[in-house]
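Batch 3, record 17
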Amino acid sequence: MEIPAKSEAKKIAELMGAVSLLRNACDLDLFVFLNRHPRSLLSTEQLAALVGYPMSQIAESIEVFIAAGILDRIQNPGHAARLYHLNTHRHTPEGERLRRLVQLASTRQGRRSILQVIHTEGSDGEPGASKVEGRLLRVA
Amino acid sequence: MATSDSVRTGVAGLDEILNGGIPRGNVILLEGKIGTGKTTMGLEFIYRGASQFNEPGLIVLFEMSPEKVTRDALGFGWDLQELERKNRLKIVFTTREVLRQELQQADSVLLEEAAKMGAQRIFIDGVARLISNDRTAESRSAFHVLTEGLQRENLTAILAVEASALEVDATHSLPEESIADTVIRLTMEESHRAVNRSIEIVKSRGQSYQMGRHSFRILDGSGIHVYRRVQAPRMASRDRASAFDPTTRVTTGVPGLDELANGGYFVGSTTVVVGISGVGKSVMGLQFLAEGVRRGERCVMLSLDEQVDQILRNARSIGIDLGPAMQKDLIHIEYEPPQEIEVDSHFYHIEELVQTFKPKRVLIDSLSTYGSSLGTQGRLFRDFFHALVALMKEYQVAAIYNHENPEMLGMASMMGGFAMSSLVDNIILLNWVELGDSFRIGLNVAKMRSNPVKRVTCECEITAEGMRVLPRELPPARAPFSRYRGLVSRAPERQFRQTQPGGPDDGSAQ
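Prediction for the assembled complex:
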């Protein structure tokens, strides 16, 4: 994986401040997918197939987004499909940063750069669970 | 017949052919091959409902990304995101499998969402494999379940389906078509290497509608515009229209012609000026318009042969300056390239022009170019001309249509291959007459309904002051046409009479 230039890494890191809940590639790709499909009526299995990750990982990412308050999930018992609604308030400054991040993640190089930043941030020695918790606290 | 509770689609022109709209709660099957405009029409149905008729709507997509749909809609000026923010519209991405399951259950999440926002319309794009393309009872049943689910919520629904998936053709109807309340078919028809879009209401329960294949276009910045087929009946007032005022005339603007035409053409009359290229038809037409302008009457010229600047230049060459009249909005001159005229939209444009600009005089240059574009063998050209004539009569416009007759000398028929002289009130023939070593212009008023016609061949001349009809008797230096016979027969002969030496016909004339 190519390492992004320092200035670009800084720019990405700033943007990441708005979505500090993105922990890994699955989070990022699911987030981009939900931006393109802000209201999706799908089963977890279908969502996993469309985004390209195992169901367990997708389910975990969904829970993180819901906990962070950017994703609503509506479901009826007995229905396999759930209605997911991404609610990122696009017209707020945070929303604008998210829009730019998604835009960046929409290119092959941009996605790689973001993942590199996530990877670098993630290698600070913090244990996985508390890291997520910390991010959630920051979002909250 | 519009029902008491009709849903107006808001698609320009579509509600007119639906006689007001679609009965509320109807399930509409929108069929068409790929690229025919199904998605655009469905989106516009939802957009117009949410933005103009206070009817929120739901868009259900399968393969297509909502992001791209939103982007494409913006190209038509439809801001779907803004409507989503106002909770007037929702775009739901799902799969056919999920939708089928959803609509089979009374507590459907999708329909709950629709109910929460008070949705009255729904558009489901691409139901082909949802309703399956086999002919089994299961397929019919799946579609039935789908329509029942939609009706339960009293949603007026458009379900877009690819015609190829349904193998739709003219001879076989499908179970889905019989279950749906309304079936609308979109097609693309190839015509001389061009492609025209058309729309047909195949059926629609609970209402009357205008049958037949109408045209439509997808216009950047505005969306779909449906144009009623030119043959479709208009208002009764147009069917009854005629040149009913037998007293008011419009002067021709050509010195000497009014005397031959009993003072001018009746208002609302149809005049065809026939002659070979270069004989003076356009000059005569320009003088007709200039005369209208001089009298403060609004005029329109529609040209398929020459661009506006060229027309203005031609007019100046005979001493007519139409520029000031254009600035004062007294005259409207328009050029339309004839290569790809789509007759329904073209007629719509003329109709709109006549209704809004309200001209007293119209010049169309020329009928023969329409003939080349639309073809003269089928009914289309005749139907188009018939519609034009009826339109002009309804609005009591005196209309002149130039028509090029290919015969250079003489005329064997008045309108050549255009067997439409019965639709025309007045026919004026202009033709070359070869006398000695020069071509001179002969003019005949060959037909003038409700008027006595002299049916003599008169000579015209065109100078820097324009066209004029010469007197029947001319000074001795030039033998007038009255001294000849067979002027239109290609073999004019001088008639010699007993004259006094040195008199006007002593043979010394040219």
